[in-house]
Structures are given as structure tokens and as C-alpha cells.
Design goal:
The chain is an alpha+beta fold. Helices cover about 75% and strands about 5% of the residues. It is rod-shaped. The two termini are about 50 Å apart.
């Protein structure tokens, strides 16, 4: 690889660019489908997480309600106990004290009943949210299935060609030194159309279409060094000659 001439390096880059452009065309045919599928998968995961949280919330509310009901039972037992004690009081002070304890437990029961009602109401809200989320989940699952089907059809139509191009790419990059390949990949990622290696056409860069001076074009033709466009940074591999038929 170290013994390759500049011309050979440029040819290797042109070949690699040709392969990558064909792979890009296949991806363009797929359009936004891969991204749409990923978005739907993320959305479904969000719905499932939400449903799991709702179910945990309902389970927590159920346990809380059980605790309140047990509190009511405990208060009822205490009230019965206090009522028995009232039968054996020795004076009004003891009677009043026990009566206050009974009233306190009755108040405690009212609080528990109120909290049970509130918790049941919260549970109904959660169940309503679960139904809505399950409906949305089912709808989006259908959308995902349809999108995955569309994407699979497109992938199956081009997978053989893409697999061959990937193998060709692996062979091509072996002919390019690491430093140059790194620059090429960086260029491709920074330009919208993925063209890192272009030709000069009609005296202009094939990437950004800015004019390339004649002296620069002569240096590109010589292929004694790698030249990049001073405007966009793309590698200028060759100069395409435009033949104009002379008028008779």
C-alpha cells in the first residue's frame, strides 16, 4: 500500500466513492422507513413502560387501601374495648376520658374511609389511563407491523446487491492508507450528498460547483499530489473533458 502512486491512490478513492454512492442510493430508496421503524419501536417501549408504572401504582393503591381497611378494623376493636370499659367506670372523669377515646377512633375511621374513597378514585383514573394507553399501544403496534413489512420488502429486493457492495467496499478500503481513509470518511460525513471524491466538470468542482482555476485543473490532471477543493474541501480526482462539436 505504501508503494502506490498518487494516481493509484486517487483511483482507489474514486472506486470507493463509486461503491459508497451506490450503497447510498439503496439507502435513499428505503427513505425514512428505518428511522420511522426505530421511532415506533421507541414509542412502543414508552407505552409499555407507562403501562408497567400504572400497574405498579394500582398495586400500591391496593396495598394502601388494605392498610386503611385494617385501620378501620383496629379502630372498631378499640371502640368495642372502650365501650366495655365505660360499663365499669368509677366516675365521670373516667367516663369522659373513654368517650374522647371513642370519638377519636370514630374520627380516625372517618379519615380512613375518606382516604379509601380517594384511593379508589385514583385507581379508577389509573385504570382509565391504562385503557387509553393500551388502545394507543395496539394502534402503534399495527403501524409498526405495517412499516416493518414495507421495510422488509425493500430490504429483500436490494439485500443481495447491498451485500456484494459491502464486500467490494471491504476490498477497496484495503487499497487505501488509514490516514487517507480517515479523511475520506470525515469528508463524507460532513457533506449532505456523501460525495467526498469528485471530478472537475465544466471548470467547476463536482461537489460545490465553484470554479476551479485552469492552473489548478492542470495540477489535478498531472496527478502528482492529492488536491482538494479550496471551497468545500472535497478531493478533486480528475478533470472531465467536455467535447464540443464544431459547427459546420
Amino acid at each position: 500500500m505504501e508503494n502506490l502512486t498518487i494516481a493509484q491512490k486517487l483511483e482507489a478513492l474514486v472506486k470507493l466513492q463509486s461503491i459508497d454512492s451506490k450503497i447510498d442510493e439503496i439507502k435513499i430508496i428505503r427513505g425514512d422507513l428505518p428511522e420511522e421503524v426505530r421511532d415506533l419501536e421507541d414509542e412502543l417501549a414508552g407505552y409499555e413502560t407507562r403501562l408497567s408504572k400504572y400497574e405498579k401504582d394500582i398495586a400500591t393503591l391496593d396495598e394502601t387501601i388494605k392498610g386503611y381497611k385494617q385501620g378501620i378494623k383496629d379502630s372498631e376493636k378499640l371502640i368495642k374495648k372502650y365501650e366495655e370499659q365505660q360499663k365499669n367506670v368509677r366516675n365521670n372523669r373516667e367516663y369522659d376520658a373513654i368517650t374522647k377515646e371513642v370519638e377519636l377512633q370514630q374520627l380516625e375511621m372517618q379519615v380512613f374511609e375518606k382516604k379509601i374513597k380517594e384511593s379508589l378514585q385514583q385507581g379508577e383514573f389509573k385504570k382509565s389511563d391504562i385503557e387509553k394507553t393500551q388502545t394507543s399501544l395496539a394502534d402503534r403496534q399495527k403501524d409498526l407491523k405495517n412499516k416493518q413489512g414495507e421495510l422488509q420488502v425493500i430490504i429483500e429486493e436490494s439485500q443481495d446487491e447491498e451485500a456484494k457492495l459491502v464486500k467490494d467496499r471491504e476490498k477497496a478500503i484495503k487499497q487505501i492508507e488509514d490516514r487517507l481513509l480517515l479523511s475520506y470518511d470525515k469528508l463524507r460525513s460532513n457533506v449532505a450528498n456523501g460525495l467526498a471524491v469528485v471530478s472537475v466538470k465544466r471548470d467547476a468542482c463536482g461537489g460545490c460547483f465553484n470554479t476551479v482555476p485552469p492552473q489548478r485543473q492542470a495540477e489535478i490532471r498531472d496527478r502528482k499530489k492529492i488536491i482538494v477543493c479550496e471551497h468545500c474541501g472535497r478531493i478533486l480526482a480528475n478533470v472531465e473533458m467536455v467535447l464540443v462539436e464544431a459547427k459546420k
